[in-house]
Amino acid sequence: IQQASPMMVLDYDYGDKLVSLNVWTVTDFIGEAIGAEDQEIRWIAREELTNFTFPEANQPIVESLMDKR
Question: Quick one: which H or E segment has residue 47?
Fold first, then answer.
């Protein structure tokens, strides 16, 4: 990552665990993105976000991205 700025910090309580997400907007990078734990990574257009199912904690992130159209 060459340049990034904070987007939001989210705390979400699933009942059996508390998740804290520190979300950043990356505006400049070099190389290829890879999942550090072998997660699938795919670049998609914002409009395609509604075609995917995300964990509940991620919903405010998706909503914020959709609002930036």
Answer: none
Helix (H) or strand (E) holding 62: helix 59-67
* pTM (2 d.p.): 0.78
* CA proximity to 66, closest of 54, 43, 49, 42: 49
In whole angstroms, what is the distance from residue 66 CA to residue 69 CA?
6
21: which 2 tokens? 């997400």
Q: For each of the chain's 69 residues, which pLDDT tens digit applies? A: 999 999 999 999 999 999 999 999 999 999 988 888 988 888 889 999 999 999 999 999 999 999 876
Alpha carbons 17 and 1: distance in angstroms, whole number: 30
